[in-house]
Prior knowledge:
The structure holds two protein chains of two kinds. Chain A is mostly helical. Chain A has helices at 2-22, 28-33, 40-51, 54-80, 82-96, 102-110, 113-146, 150-198, 204-210, 234-254, 256-259, 268-295, 309-316, 320-357, 364-388, 394-407, 409-417, 423-446, 455-470, 478-487, 496-503, 506-531. Chain A has a domain at 2-15 and 38-390: Up-down Bundle (Sodium/glucose cotransporter), CATH 1.20.1730.10. In chain A, 77% of the residues lie in helices and 0% in strands. The two termini of chain A are 41 Å apart. The longest helix of chain B has 31 residues, at 2-32. Chains A and B meet through helix 4, helix 5, helix 6, helix 12 and helix 20 of A and helix 1 of B.
Amino acid sequence: MVFIIGIIVSFIIYVLIGVVLSKTIKSSEDYYVSGRSGTTLMITGTLVASFLSTVSFMGEAGFSYEGYAIPLLILVIFNASGYIFGVFLFGRYLRRSKSLTVPEYFGNRFQSKKVRMVAAITTVLGIAAYLVAVTQGASLLLAEIFKIPYAMALVVMWIVYASFTILSGAKGVMVNDTIMFFIFSIAAYISFPFIIKSTGGFPNAIINAANHVGKPDMFSWHGVTGPSAYMGTPAETIIWAIILGLVWGSVVAISPWQSSRYLMAKNEHVAIRSGVWATISIFTIYLFLHISMTTVNNIKSDIAPTEKVFIWTAMNLVPTWLGVIIVSGIMAAALSSCATFLQLIGNSVARDILEQSRKKHYTDKQLLQVSRLSMIVVSIVILLVGLWQPPSVMWIGYFAATLFAASWGPVAFSSVYSKTVTKEGAFWSIIVGFLGVLLGEAVGLVVALPVYLNPVIIGVILGGTALVIGSRFGVITEEERAYQAKLLERPIEENEAKEMSITRKYPAYLMVSGVVIIAITFAFYYWPLSLS
Amino acid sequence: MGELIFSFAYGSALIVMGLVTRFFLKKMDTERSKVKSVDGTKSHVKYEKAV
């Protein structure tokens, strides 16, 4: 009962925040990018909250519980580094464009409506699929905790995230994301000592998990090697982790639900600092969460499906107050992603598709109305798809997320740096990259592809090739060159010297965090293993 | 051996990211003398052209 009360209270708070902040929405810029007023804390919160969802706290937690914590953490090394490369190589330039949506940036950069349109359509298709998958995952969890039918849980989820997103747009999403970021971060950090204590204490919890009879070598660098291993040989597992890590790193760097967060940043320094804090947050959250999930095997090694391991832990291994925070945190991670996804789809439908296809220019007030209306319609469609489509479609989430690496990756980076890419190249690269991933998935259904030929890799190769070949056609206009030159001009803030002196400390924050994490990893991972 | 490498590599990745960040910030510093302000653009309208 206490878990239900905790979730209900958190839901009411999110909706109330949406209602209150809706009264502060005065312009489309407020609604789309929160008036570009985001502080470092808020941009960090919305970056991490948009990234982490039920996939992280359920799917990946289960993956670690099965024995693959270390390969997953190796994946995170490459994945989270995408925040640093992303903000420096793409995010800060995107922010300079002062666009309201990422497709709008592509359209303006290449002075092409069709590039903007195709970027918007991929945004809507890709993110809608991801939104359905995350909503369904969270609804299954809600249904189980509340003991209500799945359809009812789906409607409850929809009411919560759609209400505050439609009412308050980016403002509500950013504030709620920050609150949710705190809730699931606390859940991951504070639960660590409690779980270690419950699963044998330190260092026995680690030693016993490493020597688990049913899942031998669970804490080895390549994951389990016993009868339940399903990731192939150790070498294949690590190649998989590195390739997927690089793919997810690109997703973190350029995907619409991550890069668009920089559009809300108060200035470029805030964007850079947020990228740094997001990197540190992901590294630490994953380390604590996945080491502790592996040790749960000491107490119970047959939780099925394994995705429920963190929820089972919340209800059985930690004090009730912490269990409530964990369950609320998992719901928060799901809701924050759903809200961001809905916001992006609704914005793209209104601004990039409806406005452009009708060849009319909305006034600010009209844009605000059309955006809200688009979000209502989109959210209803998502609800209906969620009700109609069978749940447990997490693979759709993985597919939808990673396809942006192939579809947008080559165009995003070259839009900033290349002086030879044309609108034809950009247009075909987005389409071919998108279709390349679909082709790879289709081939994978017929023939088992080697680990290095992941569908996303196929998409990236085809998309990159299309970019090069397509750029041989068409000419680069003066407007395109002028726009790109403007992007490359670094803005000087009013108090630039002060801002820069703060930002200059951030490399040290990363390095000190690295040293602390080495100490933690050595103490809580390698040293106990060396005793076993 | 792999476990030892991992226990150092995980945190070391953040140290490397710190060096990468420092590199980019130094590059920003050198760009600083060449640039002029584009901030103060309160609205997206300024950047809207045909698209």
